[in-house]
Design a protein that fits this description.
alpha/beta; Aspartate Aminotransferase, domain 2; Aspartate Aminotransferase, domain 1; 7-stranded mixed sheet; 14 strands
């Protein structure tokens, strides 16, 4: 009888007792608002910002209400205006073009290659064609391009890089932490990311002017002196009154939950790597299945797994999804005509008036995605790989026979 996986692909680990105790402490004193502090306590949010900035090795950090808010805040802090073109990946999640469109700016999509990263030749072509001065680079599902080449191309055309690191917190490229290559970066602490506060996010930068703008945008009123990981008063003085308050602050309750998790993040990244490696080993040389080549310069956070069923018919891809589903393995497909859950793709975002992108279409037509929560063990990952291997092989053999 065929084995069936019994685990949940959406169940995260429980919040640790240390984090729960920290949250209860905030609930007991009642100072949930980030600026409601007492003289001897900077507040959980301010301390979290300082700790996250130190974790990355950057100067400034603003903790906000969501990763999506961080993206839109970043664009505003960089001076993006309605009608401005903003470059971004064809393969990303909806909040990225959504953040661009929320400002009235225009998403300009760059082709995605079989490594699930930006096609850098197309990036250069799109820079020249659009005149865009901002690249919102999404490290989608943790896949990072050659950042040296990205920065060289962008510097040659005076394009500022904002990194979307929702899927790369704790990862790196070329020995530098993800989120420290661009002029600024955004992170998410939504439940299915690498730190879990339900919703939440960070904006980070080493640029004092951009950081000051982000603090004001987040809704600091005149309380920016209560930030620890922020520029000094001299950087706020020239812009106070010119920057709108678009409130999106993180609260002390969520920050209290996140601070203990941040100290555990390197160990969690190692656990995700073990799960990812176990699935990779189990799927090697599966007929009809292509694994994604890892960039040797990147340390990826393996909280999800992708593979390609290249040149398969839609019916056969859907057959694999269905057959794995009956055996308890939940796979998602980015090639469907209609968006399902989070698997929408650039063609589905009609508001962006997307062009036809043949390279991305070919890749996404065969792209299968799977979460790897830390509630799984390496043995679970091995079983999942066996099930996928068996069902892909069966459908491939039928299609070939």
């Amino acid at each position: 009888m065929s084995e069936t996986f019994k685990g949940s692909f959406t169940q995260q680990e429980p919040i640790s007792e240390v984090a729960i105790e920290a949250a209860v402490k905030v609930l007991r004193h009642g100072r949930l608002h980030r600026y409601n502090v007492v003289a001897d306590d900077a507040g959980e949010v301010a301390q979290l910002e300082q700790e996250f900035a130190a974790f990355l090795g950057v100067k400034y950090c603003v903790a906000v209400a969501s990763g999506g808010y961080a993206l839109a805040c970043a664009l505003r802090a960089h001076g993006v205006k309605p009608g401005d073109p903003v470059l971004t990946n064809a393969f990303t999640l909806a909040p990225v073009p959504g953040a661009i469109a929320s400002l009235g700016a225009v998403p300009v999509f760059v082709e995605t290659n079989a490594a699930l990263t930006l096609d850098l030749d197309h990036l250069q072509a799109q820079i020249l064609a659009s005149g865009a001065k901002i690249l919102m680079l999404s490290h989608m599902r943790g896949h990072q391009p050659d950042m040296d080449r990205v920065l060289t191309i962008c510097a040659a055309h005076q394009v500022q890089v904002i990194e979307d690191c929702a899927h790369t917190m704790g990862g790196s490229w070329g020995g530098k932490p993800a989120g420290t290559h661009g002029l600024s970066s955004c992170f998410s602490t939504q439940t299915y990311k690498h730190l879990n506060s339900g919703e939440g996010g960070f904006f980070v930068t080493d640029d004092a002017d951009i950081a000051a703008r982000a603090v004001l945008l987040s809704g600091s009123y005149m309380l920016f002196d209560r930030h620890i990981a922020a520029p000094g008063p001299q950087d706020f003085a020239p812009i106070t009154g010119d920057i709108p308050n678009i409130s999106g602050r993180m609260d002390n309750l969520r920050a209290a939950i996140l601070r203990p998790q941040l100290s555990d993040l390197p160990a969690q990244v190692a656990r995700w790597a073990a799960l990812h490696d176990a699935v990779t080993q189990g799927l090697k040389d599966t007929p009809g299945l292509t694994l994604i080549n890892a960039d040797p310069g990147a340390v990826r956070v393996g909280s999800s797994f992708q593979f390609l069923l290249s040149d398969w018919t839609p019916d056969n891809v859907q057959a694999v999804i269905a057959r794995c589903g009956t055996r308890g393995v939940e796979l998602k497909w980015f090639g469907a005509d209609i968006a399902h859950g989070y698997t929408s793709r650039y063609e589905h975002w009609a508001y962006a008036k997307p062009p036809h992108l043949p390279l991305s279409d070919k890749v996404l037509a065969g792209l299968v995605d799977m979460r790897l929560p830390l509630t799984f063990s390496p043995r679970d990952a091995q079983q999942i790989a066996r099930i996928i291997r068996a069902e892909v092989s069966a459908v491939f053999q039928q299609a070939s026979g």
